């Protein structure tokens, strides 16, 4: 299959580049372990409706006693309403991941848009956008997120929005720097000379060059979004009907599980948050070191 | 920047994971000198107002009861009216004229005499000033005139006979202080320390969300309290408060959850008190919120104006399960509006939990099920309801989950939202709810809670000056309310109060589902006993009176030096050992090095 059309050549080159990235990624043992953990957790979360019965989350169907320690029937004990902690942990993963990923998409979307626009257009557009970025950068994002999720109607999407619109400035800065560096290269100048428009330059040259870095950044942002979601839910700002790990910690605290010494109610969600955040972090770092030429060891 | 934020967040998560409650250590109670007897109380509700005319939240009125004596008080044992500022009273043959004898020789905390003129001033202020009626207006709405012919005589003439004349929960304020505050009453915070009062304690300091401090009032007519000072420390949640009790930072904690109570039960130096509560927890159903001029307000689901729908919702609430699960068994299942602790007034009418009957009620009332099994309202639109609760109330979330499940089985999807207590107040006052959790404390005389359901309690256009709980406005109920208020024959009044409650149950705007026990615990190594009301089986905090704090008995000297000093001694010993070890190590090293150099 040796097609010689320009598109085919481009795609072959991209496939080769992806293969190189993958090989380099595989060399980072921490990254591989992180990826394996992520695949496992995401797989389990996606399969929750198949492998478990959601009815166990309904308190009226719960059969266990109040705050029972781990046993054969309830591997991680029960909560204050007699529901299995393991089952809640399992289903909580779905909410935590969903919110984490959605919030990241919002955040990275805004960040990329602002970053590329700031670097590409320059002039007064850049001045305005940079000031806006700076404004959001100096605001304490947790406080802003709390304020936002208080004002917005409660629910998952309020949390997504609250995290998304408060965490984009770092992405915007990163993308701006990379765009500036890409646009100073000679082939961009050549494209301009050949009559390329903004759309062509951004779509064909800048974005493909910036996106790998954005992707690596996304993986890191998911980690901080999950933390942010857990924090907001722990503070009682989450959606009580869609329990995430943060919501579990909040219920544990409100019901007095801390004083009761119900470690089986506190540790699993806490550790789950730590593990998934760690997995996203090592994965993201590994990817970043592969994709960011400055971090690549030569 | 990002790393630091992640670090902070991780720290929060780690704290949460390791089970350290996220305590804001605001105004952490200090250890006091052994000779001054200070009672340190942990509270988790914020103080809204300490102006006695505006204060109606439980946290506020509890402090108000300590600061100001009322005309009459409630007995500690069985809560019957006993003398307060008035030492005796009699009602005229017309049943309209009440003459109170004010005790001679009583003094305010600033040594000025307490006279009948102060009482008359307080009541007259409430009669002439709408702001002064905010908290306790129901008690004086039927007053015609209030006069003080001399310093020891108070004469109150009512328009109709009034049954609550010996249960006037109105803090009496000193005229010489308040006469100049009348014009700007709504903005007056009443925080000129020490605040002149007549109760067993005098307010001496207050920092919002941190602490309230009261000193024993030596002029109190019953005599000075056994403790010198009562300090209320604010904690963000009961878990933090429970931990503070275990550590010995506070002496008394209330409103514990079942899990906390069970844990504290077995701890050394701590005594628990499971008290029968005087609160009801209810689900309020928005029947179409309106102002006192009958202007509709809020965004409540109009379908709930149908009493049949409300009754079906009431049938779908299993109070027994809520009590067993959400309250861990530490509550009585809700039945009538007035808690069974006031057995005289309570109807004790059990509501039956019957989902099949509720479904039948809905079918008969014309709420068809759509193709997806969800109910449609009468206009054919899907019927969904919002349920709002307080995120700070441990039982609201589980209760909400149960209700969501039960109403879901009727084909009514429920969206449970938990918001802060402040926001919940705003939302319900504005009528922006379909279903909401609510709770009220009930006094020995039922008038105050009965008045919450009258048309007169509806708010004005600004949403102010109304204490309505449910936006109930029903002619038949109002008549029963008025009848009981003017009934001086107690037997008849009891019947009317019960009828009023039955009418309320029919209206189904308030569905009482639990009377939570009040779970309290105190450090028995610092305090040997507290006066409970009613006695036995009653509460220490949140009484209809001040007995709990007034009669607190500190433990005998010697045992009072409990946890903290021991910990301190151990700490000092450890520190000394460590420091000595380090010094020895350093010295020996230096010796060695100098020795090496000498070689």
From TrEMBL, chain A:
Coiled-coil regions, chain positions: none
First-listed, main subcellular location of the protein, grouped into a coarse class: membrane
Domain ABC transmembrane type-1: start-end pairs: 93-284
Domain of life: Bacteria
Pfam families cross-referenced by the UniProt entry: BPD_transp_1, OppC_N
Membrane topology value: Multi-pass membrane protein
Keyword Secreted listed: no
UniProt entry tagged with the keyword Cell membrane: yes
CDD domains: TM_PBP2
This protein's UniProt keywords: Cell membrane, Membrane, Transmembrane, Transmembrane helix, Transport
Segments crossing the lipid bilayer: 32-51, 95-116, 128-149, 155-175, 213-235, 271-291
Intracellular or extracellular location(s): Cell membrane
Protein family membership: Belongs to the binding-protein-dependent transport system permease family.
Protein name per the record: Peptide/nickel transport system permease protein
Native source organism of the sequence: Kutzneria viridogrisea
UniProt lineage: Bacteria, Bacillati, Actinomycetota, Actinomycetes, Pseudonocardiales
From TrEMBL, chain B:
Protein name: Peptide/nickel transport system substrate-binding protein
Family in the record: Belongs to the bacterial solute-binding protein 5 family.
Keyword NADP: no
Top-rank taxon, per record: Bacteria
Keyword vocabulary terms for this entry: Membrane, Signal, Transmembrane, Transmembrane helix, Transport
Stretches that traverse the bilayer: 568-588
Major localization class: other
Matching Gene3D superfamilies: Dipeptide-binding Protein, Domain 3, Periplasmic binding protein-like II
Stored PANTHER family: PERIPLASMIC BINDING COMPONENT OF ABC TRANSPORTER, PERIPLASMIC OLIGOPEPTIDE-BINDING PROTEIN-RELATED
InterPro entries xref list: Peptide/Ni-bd, SBP_5, SBP_5_dom
Location within or outside the cell: Cell envelope
CDD domains: PBP2_NikA_DppA_OppA_like (cd00995)
Coiled coil start-end: none
Pfam families, A to Z: SBP_bac_5 (PF00496)
Signal peptide per UniProt: 1-33
Lineage, opening ranks: Bacteria, Bacillati, Actinomycetota, Actinomycetes, Pseudonocardiales
Domain Solute-binding protein family: 81-452
